[in-house]
Amino acid sequence: MNSRPSLRFKPQSTNVLRNWLSISTIALLTALAGCAASNNQSQTASSPAASASPAASSPAASASPVQVEPTGLLAQVLSRSKIICGTSGKVPGFSFVNTQGEYSGFDVDICRAVAVAVFNDPSKVEFRQLSAAQRFTSSQTGSIDIISQTATVTISRESTVGVAFGPVILYDGQGLMVKKNSGITKIEQLAGKSVCVQTGSTTILNLTDQFRKRGIAYKPVSFDDNNATFAAYQQGRCEAVTADRSGLVSNRSKLPNPDEHTILDIVLSKEPLAPGVKQGDPQWANVLNWVVYVLIQADEFGITSKNVDQIAQSTKDPDIRRFLGLEGDLGKGLALKNDYALQVIKQIGNYSEVYDRNLGKDSPLKLERGPNKLWTDGGLLYSPPFR
Amino acid sequence: MAIQVFGFKNALGLLRDVRFWRIVGQLFFVLFLVWLGTTLWHNLTLNLQKAGIQIGLNFIQSQASFDIGERIITYSPTDSFGRALFVGFVNTLRVTGIGMVLATLLGLVIGLARLSDNWLIEQLAKLYVEVFRNTPLLLQLFFWYFAGFAKLPSIDSNTPPSSLFYLTNRGLALTWVSATAATGIWIGLLTLATLIAIGLWQWRRWLRIERGVASRTWLWAGGAIGLGIILAFAITRASPFEWNVPRLNATELEGGLQISPEFTSLLLGVTFFIASFIAEIVRAGIQSVPKGQWEAAKSLGLKPGVMLSKVILPQALRVIIPPLTSQYLNLAKGTSLAIAIGYPDIYFVANTIFNQTGRVVEVMLILMASYLGVNLIISLIMNLVNYSFQIKER
Ligand SMILES: N[C@@H](CCC(=O)N[C@@H](CS)C(=O)NCC(=O)O)C(=O)O
Predict the structure, then answer these.
(1) Do A13 and B142 touch (CB under 8 A)?
(2) Burial of B208 by CB count in 10 Å (0-12 exposed, 13-18 middle, 19+ buried)?
(3) Do residue A208 and residue B68 have CB atoms under 8 angstroms apart?
(4) Per-residue pLDDT, A8
(5) From 3.30.300.30, 2.120.10.30, 3.40.190.10, 3.40.50.2000, which CATH number describes the A174-269 domain?
(6) Which protein residue's CA is at the shortest distance from atom 12 of ligand 1?
(7) Which CATH number fits domain B81-162+259-389: 1.10.1660.10, 3.90.226.10, 1.10.3720.10, 3.50.50.60?
(8) What's the CA gap between B377 and B384, in Å, rounded?
(9) Domain residue spans in chain B?
(10) Phi-psi bin for A200: left (phi > 0), alpha (psi -120 to 50), beta?
(11) What is the C-alpha to C-alpha distance for residues B320 and B145, in angstroms, rounded to an integer?
(12) Residue B65's closest chain A neighbor by CA?
């Protein structure tokens, strides 16, 4: 237990330096990116012409004349042959790097699903570890293609920060965690106490609002790193730590004695978490949206990674046949392969499978589905129709 | 004809004149910089426009709506982003200012220890310098914070309800003075007494030099101050201040002088780090004073303290001050790592703001301007100090 904090030195130190570096280079990069940007423009400018004559440009795929040509970011991603995905890497269940350097988690699987849709290969993703504060700057400047990092959808992030969020993948709320033996059960008991919190998040704003609303004085202690925040809490610097409830459960699993900590009943805010892309590229945004919807819709159809091949062979249901790309050309309209949904389900699974193995009953976290059930089961998950 | 030949010769002369080419060279360099600047600016605005990012400083007036844990000027979440930035800036200045003083003192001590005749002291000073100079500041901050402060006793049932000082993992609390109604009168009278004392001192000195009478400067000056104290006590019939003893309220410390672990860790971090460089600068400066000066001072029979302060240091300072300035600048910049250990400096505030507003470019510019401003002021003061220590021709 004593060696733990020192083990964390390295990631933390690189992280802060990287923060500084990346954020201070952004201005420079944006300035220097002039030539690259004009290249993009010529690409985008030429592509409508290409898509206007699809038969000429892709005779092989011209079984149907509706195959849309990739433009903008999708074209760039294809030529780069990998997706760059921004994520944390420090939050078990969402994105975590194991000792072999392999990423796993809910956020990670979203990026993998997009990689399957685009390349038919879940390994064609490069993950970039970001802190909560770096997430949107990285997406804004285009240094990542997708941001999949426990990000809450908010109006200002879409309007002024310039993120285009995809569908919500987890309906969450902010919570407070305290040590069991502190005897604290209500937020009012935190009056005058210190609360550890991570900057660059909605968390710090909700915390301020909630205490202001109740007229309780408290002392925020803010860090820019997830691990530092929880290390400070664990070592007794703060009476409580606040984050998304799922994030609390996840980080609690990393503490030496998870059982000694308890999450208060109070929910401080609504935190609908969603992946996002940079605004201004509808085609790429559509790819993200309709990959996420595939996970949800597959769940509703009862299609899983195990039975998808069999269903594809046997089904007569035109809805399902269209969904899996056996007829119609929904995938082509997204500038993807027509059977992208089938591949995503086969290689990644449906929503329940992804949830269960990362956060739910098959994971160490054992998080309740709560509102994250299908609308047909009284939850909030609802995919628009595939047609 | 003659004129033309003359002109021709002149032109040729110009081409052969190295001064001419220097000017041309500089001219081209300036043009290049201008070109580079305008191109970068053009690209920046173009790219920002393309990314749909607006540029402007109006957001500074919008409501911050986040809290800042530690501050020495008033602030509430309903204040503006500008105010929040200022709070962070003051926090940065606080660490920078105190750090500069402490690092200088520590650096001076270690630098002198490096020159000590005592082998053990010299080796310890050397060890200090090598350890602190050769490890990254960020690592040292984590060390002070997570291995240092966090390991201090936590507040629990064994913590005394009241104590002259507390040293816990929630911070330091010291007994401090707090002002009372009498404080103002005391300060006023004592200031007056001090002024009178200085005047009396000068007068007695003048008397001794001019008239040769026994001066007794200390007696006169001390008498004035003593009278001031008696008078102040007679008027207020109270002590000038009250002791403010820290106490425990449930699980948080109250009263006294509270110093947070974040502030202390950052202060210790930058102080110990920069002091290791200053120590080397002090050592080099002192070693640059010719041996003859030491010998001359010794042969005059000066005591070691006087020798150091009147003969050696004034000469060493000429060598010390310019590199010392650089270390002060490094210290100011080094405080920007504060966010790693949760101290709300200006970078922390900026970080929070651009996350909330997406205004990376503007906030970055404000940040740069702030650090530039602090450092220009430090440079300016140090240049004045440097100037006053230079050898003056008489
Ligand atoms: N959902 C909130 C909070 C997100 C958040 O802070 N997540 C933490 C984990 S709970 C994180 O991503 N930390 C990344 C890191 O510092 O590595 C938001 O979008 O602002």
Answers:
(1) yes
(2) middle
(3) no
(4) 41
(5) 3.40.190.10
(6) A132
(7) 1.10.3720.10
(8) 11
(9) 2-50, 81-162+259-389, 183-236
(10) left
(11) 32
(12) A205
> Do residues B265 and B121 lie in contact, with contact meaning Cβ atoms separated by under 8 Å?
no
Sorted by sequence, the CB contacts under 8 Å of residue A44 that are 6+ apart come out as A71, A72
Is the shortest distance between the CB of A107 and ligand 1 below 6 Å?
no
Q: What is the pLDDT of residues B96-128, one digit of tens each?
A: 999 999 999 999 999 999 998 899 999 999 999
Alpha-carbon torsion (A188, A189, A195, A198), positive or negative: negative
CATH topology of domain A72-170+273-299+351-377: D-Maltodextrin-Binding Protein; domain 2 (3.40.190)
Q: Closest-CA residue in chain A for B352?
A: A200
Nearest atom within ligand 1 for CA of residue A271: 1
Q: Ligand 1, residue A198: give the atom nearest the CA.
A: 6
| Nearest CB neighbour to A237, from listed B44, B147, B170 | B170
Residue B336 with chain A: CB contacts under 8 Å: 20
Min Cα–Cα distance to chain A from B150, Å: 6
**Of B69, B341, B360, Cβ closest to residue A26:** B360
A19 lines ligand 1 (CB under 6 A): no
pLDDT of residue A363: 94
Partner residue opposite B47 with nearest CB, options A33, A162, A209: A33
**Separation CA B41–CA B155 (nearest Å):** 54
Chain B contact set for A8 (CB, 8 A): 146
DSSP H or E run through B248: strand B247-249
Query: B351: closest CA among B17, B81, B32, B2?
Result: B81
Rg (alpha carbons) of chain B, rounded to whole number: 29
Interface A:B, Cβ pairs < 8 A: 174
Task: pLDDT tens for chain B, 394 residues: list them.
Answer: 444 545 556 777 888 888 888 899 999 999 999 999 999 989 888 887 776 667 788 888 999 989 998 988 999 999 999 999 999 999 999 999 999 999 999 999 999 999 988 999 999 999 999 999 999 999 999 999 999 888 888 877 777 877 878 888 888 888 888 888 888 888 888 899 999 999 998 988 888 888 888 778 888 889 988 998 888 888 888 888 888 888 887 777 787 888 899 999 999 999 999 999 999 999 999 999 999 998 999 999 988 888 888 888 889 998 999 999 999 999 999 999 999 999 999 999 998 888 888 888 889 999 999 999 999 999 999 999 888 887 776 5
With a 6 Å cutoff on the Cβ, whether A269 touches ligand 1 is no
Token pair for residue B89? 């800036």
Complex ipTM tops 0.95: no
pLDDT at residue A44 tops 60: no
Q: How many CA atoms lie within 13 A of A30 on its CB side?
A: 27
Question: Residue ranges of the domains in chain A?
Answer: 72-170+273-299+351-377, 174-269
Residue in chain B closest to A136 (alpha carbons) equals: B355
Q: Please give the span between the terminal C-alpha atoms of chain B, in angstroms, as a whole number.
A: 56
Whether A73 is in the pocket of ligand 1, judged by its Cβ within 6 Å, is no
Q: What is the tens place of the pLDDT at every residue in A69-105? A: 999 999 999 999 999 999 999 999 999 998 898 999 9
What phi and psi, each to the nearest 5 degrees, are found at residue B204?
-65, -35
Kindly report the protein residue whose alpha carbon is nearest to atom 10 of ligand 1. A247
Q: Helix, strand, or coil here: B176?
A: strand
SS3 at position B171:
strand
Q: Locate the chain A residue with the closest alpha carbon to B169.
A: A237
Residue of B44, B355, B365 with shortest CB distance to A31:
B44
The Cα–Cα gap between A96 and B109 comes to: 47
User: What is d(CA A365, CA A363) in angstroms, rounded to the nearest whole number?
Assistant: 5
Spatial distance between the Cα atoms of A157 and B87, rounded to a whole number of angstroms: 25
